[in-house]
Amino acid sequence: MKKTSRLSQYREAKGISQIGMAEKMGVTQQCISSWQTGRTIPKPYQMKQLSEILEVPIDELFYEEFNQV
Hints:
- There is one protein chain.
- With about 70 residues, the chain is an all-alpha fold.
- It is built from 5 helices and no strands.
- Helix 2 crosses helix 3 (about 30-35).
């Protein structure tokens, strides 16, 4: 069982659906899903957008992903 990503946890805590987040960012819901599952990672400007929308520092959202490399 794969643990829930921090991105997913913070998004859900804010009450934002994947579709809602996608609309705010101008991407697809599939894109948000891929970020949450770790299949892909957002570009730096998208990380900044996520950080601003969720009101969480970038390193808090993606720390584990960066350290798995």
